[in-house]
Amino acid sequence: MRPESEVFREFLIHKGMRSTPEREEILAEVFAHHDHFDVEELIMRLRRRGLRISRASVYRTLALLVESGMVGEVYIEDGHMHYEHIYGHEHHCHLRCLGCRKLIEFRNGSLKEMEKRIGQENDFEIIGHKLEIYGYCAACRGEES
Amino acid sequence: MRPESEVFREFLIHKGMRSTPEREEILAEVFAHHDHFDVEELIMRLRRRGLRISRASVYRTLALLVESGMVGEVYIEDGHMHYEHIYGHEHHCHLRCLGCRKLIEFRNGSLKEMEKRIGQENDFEIIGHKLEIYGYCAACRGEES
DNA sequence: GTGTCTGCAAACAGTTTGCACTTCT
DNA sequence: AGAAGTGCAAACTGTTTGCAGACAC
Predict the structure, then answer these.
(1) B122 touches chain A (CB under 8 A)
(2) Which of A41, A53, B27, B114 is 20 to 30 A from residue B87's alpha carbon, by CA?
(3) Nearest residue, CA→C1' of D7
(4) Is the pLDDT of residue B74 over 50?
(5) Is residue A145 very low, low, confident or very high in pLDDT (cuts 50, 70, 90)?
(6) Does nucleic acid strand C have an atom less than 7 angstroms from the CB of A56?
């Protein structure tokens, strides 16, 4: 698999845009942890590494990363967007606990054939999907009693 | 099936809240059309019926309807939330065209058994799910050429 | 009558944008 | 040199909130 930085740089060049230190650092930080994150966290993490990249640049770069398909917008919580990196990671869906708001990832191969069928039935070329299942985790079910 | 107004009134009473003309009108308008809607549209529709219900009351009532489970938050587009009524309507999923942004609804029974399996595997009590499949509709595929 | 609800306007938060300056090529 | 990017602060937008008067029960 080609390194993220290379893929992103190519995406930028293809759009007639430049690779800059800020963009590289943001990209690196996004792929440094496998966790969902929001803009505030990302900026904090950059700060911790001694980088003073402006909020505006973070927003602008994140938009590019989403456009390139390397990063995904996952959900809005507490009024702001949460992201995850996608490039190089197997597709997964989310299980959301309505009690503690915890999010669990799970692999899910069985949607493939359903996608195919849905695509044919609706004359749609299917690119991908986003599935969130919600309910209550074991711990939260325990508390109820 | 019991009428929406009755179900909502009961929900309110259960919470120690009151049934008011504003809440009843908003509820009625939400269930008057089978389309996704946003706050602006809802207010417009109320206005058209000669009702001057404040934006604040619409937001507050919508939050209650979502809490009651009668209305669902569907997706964010153009920076604001879009809703749909749920009560009395069969569950469905969404097919989103990435070209024209059109949203198609489709029924989808086959997720039931998958839900069951996922629930067992993750020790989760599953309440529901939200599935959005995205791709390109026939018209938008045609244009590409 | 009392406690909730409404409408208003102000507050708020996340995000976007205009602009002067910097940086990359 | 010239185009594109950055940081800053102000602007913007959807949503929430505090409060005074109105209303449901």
Answers:
(1) yes
(2) B114
(3) A54
(4) yes
(5) very low
(6) yes
Over residues A121-136, the pLDDT tens digits come to 999 999 999 999 999 9
For B69-113, what is the HEC assignment?
A: CCEEEEEEECCEEEEEECCCCCCCEEEEECCCCCEEEECCCCHHH
Instruction: Classify burial at A14, counting beta carbons within 10 Å of its beta carbon; exposed 0-12, middle 13-18, buried 19 or more.
Output: exposed
CATH of domain B93-141: 3.30.1490.190
Q: Which residues in B lie closer than 8 A to residue A75 (C-beta atoms)?
A: none
Closest by CA position to B39, among listed B57, B51, B52: B57
Does the pLDDT at position B25 exceed 50?
A: yes
CATH, domain A4-85, list 1.10.10.2840, 1.10.10.10, 3.30.70.1150, 3.40.50.720:
1.10.10.10
Looking at the C1' of nucleotide C8, which residue has the nearest alpha carbon? B54
End-to-end CA distance of chain A: 49
CA A53 to C1' D8, in angstroms, rounded, equals 12
Q: CB of B24 within 8 A of CB of B5?
A: yes
Angstrom distance, B53 CA to C8 C1': 12
Strand partners, B83: B37, B73
Query: What is the tens place of the pLDDT at every residue in A17-36?
Result: 999 999 999 999 999 998 89
